[in-house]
Design brief:
- The protein has 320 residues and is an alpha/beta fold.
- It folds into two domains: 156 residues, 3-Layer(aba) Sandwich (Rossmann fold), CATH 3.40.50; 99 residues, UDP-galactose 4-epimerase, domain 1.
- Helices cover 41% and strands 13% of the residues.
- It has a four-stranded parallel β-sheet with strand order 3-4-5-10, sandwiched between helices. The protein has a two-stranded parallel sheet with strand order 1-2.
- Helix 2 packs across helix 4.
- It is globular.
- It starts with 5 loop residues before the first strand and ends in a 13-residue tail after the last helix.
Length: 320
């Protein structure tokens, strides 16, 4: 889009910085931490951004159960700190509205806020019933974004994003765990893939399509929240079958169900109703489910061939 992009990175001697600079050479990096208000104010003052996209969070649901307090601090209160940094640096108060050149803010909300959903599919009016510390923290951030928009007149929006995946997905998430597992089995590094609840269903789409929706939300004349998803759900079993077929394998020969990977409280059927995004943003997903999963399997086959099967080892026992 021709943007000058800055990325926020945490702390001193962050081991990911070298990898990020190699991967994203055209992205400028600046230090900051969602746990530290002053660092965020300093970052906003330094960059003077036109737009701020907050995708930072403790975003892995099982980890939110293990570190619930940290999840609340980062995923919930972190949103408050980013909004406050924007407000302070813009000189906005209850008596002073933002000017025409105000900073536009995007908050990454999530379908996990719906949790035990009151209706299927879910749209912008569906009530929230989160089923994890992650979902609860995201609800806090969502309503806070709405409050700053209504109280201060800020251009602040939330995208209620359903699951979005790509070959860059973390290896702890089920889609990537499956694509890596399939690649390891295909290349002879493993014989089994251990998973939890195969009947759980999700609305999975391609991350690139969803980032395009984020951009479109901040390009509108007026701020509004949108549900972003494909409107089609697939079970984990369907995900597994698609991935193994992409490698010419039968999943029933390799998949083992393991109760250790079942969530304490599973969400019900999550399925997006993206009608508002389609009508007002002109947004439609371009990549379908099977194409997405095949893309991920192909990428992991190539990755493992180049790394002798070692990719993703650090997450091998900490997934779905």
């Amino acid at each position: 889009m021709g943007y000058e992009v800055w990325g926020l990175v945490r702390g001193q001697a962050n081991p990911r910085v070298r990898h990020l600079r190699k991967l994203l050479g055209d992205v400028r990096l600046i230090r900051g931490d969602l746990l530290d208000q002053g660092s965020l104010i300093a970052a906003v003052e330094r960059v003077q951004p036109d737009e701020v996209y907050n995708l930072a969070a403790i975003s892995y649901v099982p980890l939110s159960w293990q570190q619930a307090e940290l999840t609340g601090e980062v995923t919930g209160l972190g949103v408050l700190r980013v909004l406050e940094a924007i407000r302070v640096c813009s000189g906005i108060s209850a008596s002073r509205s933002p000017g025409s050149g105000q900073i536009r803010f995007y908050q990454a909300s999530t379908s996990e806020m719906f949790g035990q959903a009151s209706q299927v599919p879910q749209n912008e009016q569906t009530s929230f019933h989160p089923r994890s510390p992650y979902g609860v923290a995201k609800v806090y951030g969502h309503f806070l974004t709405q409050n700053y928009r209504e109280s201060y007149g800020m251009f602040a929006v939330s995208g209620i994003m359903f699951n979005h995946e790509s070959p860059r997905r973390g290896a702890e998430f089920v889609t990537r765990k499956v694509s890596l597992g399939v690649a390891k089995i295909k290349l002879g590094y493993e014989r089994q893939l251990r998973l939890g609840n195969l009947s759980a269903s999700r609305d999975w789409g391609f991350a690139g399509d969803y980032v395009r929706a984020m951009y479109l939300m901040l390009a509108q004349d007026a701020p509004a929240d949108y549900v972003i998803g494909t409107g089609v759900t697939h079970s984990v079993e369907k995900l597994v079958d698609t991935a193994f077929r992409a490698a010419g394998l039968n999943w029933r020969d390799h998949v083992v169900t393991d109760a250790a990977f079942i969530r304490p409280a599973e969400v019900d059927r999550l399925c997006a109703d993206p009608a508002k995004a389609r009508d007002e943003l002109g947004w439609e997903p371009k990549i379908g489910f099977e194409e997405l999963i095949e893309m991920m399997v192909d990428a992991d086959l190539e990755l493992l061939a180049a790394t002798d099967g070692s990719a993703g080892e650090e997450f091998a026992t900490d997934s779905w």
